[in-house]
Amino acid sequence: MNYLDYLTKFQMFTLNPTLATVGFFMEKLGNPHKKFKSIYVTGTNGKGSVCETLFAVLTNSGYKTGKFMSPVLLDLNEYIAIGDNYINSEEIDEYLVDLKPLIEEKQNEGVFVTFWEVITALSIMHFAKHKVDIAIIETGIESPVDCTNIIDPILTIITKVDVDHEALLGTTVEENMREVIKCIKPNVPVITSNNLGRGGSLPPALHLIKATAKDAKNFKTPLKGKFQKENLSLALKCFELLNQKGFNISNEQIHEGLKKIKHRARFETISKSPLVIFDGCHNANAVEAFVETLSTQEDGVICSNSLKLSIIVALLKDKDLNSFMNAFAKGIKKITKSKKVKIIFTSGTSVLQQGGSLGVFHSSNKLNEAYSKHSKNNEYNPQLIESSFEDALKNIKNNETTFIIGSFKTYKKAMEILS
User: Fold this and answer.
1) Mean pLDDT over residues 162-171, rounded?
2) Which superfamily does CATH assign the domain made up of 268-418 to?
3) How many helices (H) and strands (E) does the chain have?
């Protein structure tokens, strides 16, 4: 069986998700999700940073650590890893021998089985087979019916909540918060930096622990941006609770583990000559963090000394264009006071998303119009250009610092062109 051909036939999500299908898989497979400890990471922004921090430190501390994260950037097997090893094709084929008949059983009943349900089940089977000490599970969509929520975690982490996945979660922060809070399970400690009261009453939790940036004052992360202190504080609180639960994670192991964090597509330098930095920010909160990182010299951000900046933008249609451009325009207004900025709006690129569905991007013209609407009265206007994504990459200048933002789905094409 060619797992790639098989998996890409599934659509990624459904607008009516439930836990029923993945629950059926787990029951028929002997409940593998109950055979290992896990940490559940939900929220809108910062999940990836928190997951990679937990993963690096726990692995450095000698624990066999599993990781289930999205989105993948180059290959489907990047969803699932244990230590330094991604799941391989032979293992996926092995698990599909047991899983495929169950998928077909549900399909024959008329059930719409999604890629996300299948890949989640594969990750759980992999972690159970290899008897991981702990697995870090990142939600796909911050909803209680996201199939990753089938697990019974020993800890839950809620990162910064903002508006995302509007069709499922709502159009306001409060609506998104209400959905995120529903992911909390009784008697499971919860670590967050949010004001959860914005989303309504809390379900019962053994502990609700508030983490703040000051909790990270004695530790340093290689990840860029002031907001990373908040993400780091969540991870540090997690290590405190894990030690209370029988783990042994020392401060020395934390310091050493932090040095080993690898987090692609988040302010990642993907080319040094010309200098190109990729950041997958795609909502208002994330683009605010991007602009803040862009304009600060903290941590020696490499772009801070460059007077010529070029920003290539692509944004999928399922993202909130209005709030994204409002935040982006405000940030650019600050930056153009001291730097010469060129913004290149693109219509993205033809990208096969995980799950076999094509990503549909806003047109370059639509992006330009939205930006212009929010950038009125800017005394220092940047140069605005509309271009194809491929041409924008091919015309990068050596004397500029170039950024690619707006979608993780352009990462693979950017790497192909720059190579």
Assistant:
1) 70
2) Mur ligase, C-terminal domain (3.90.190.20)
3) 14, 14
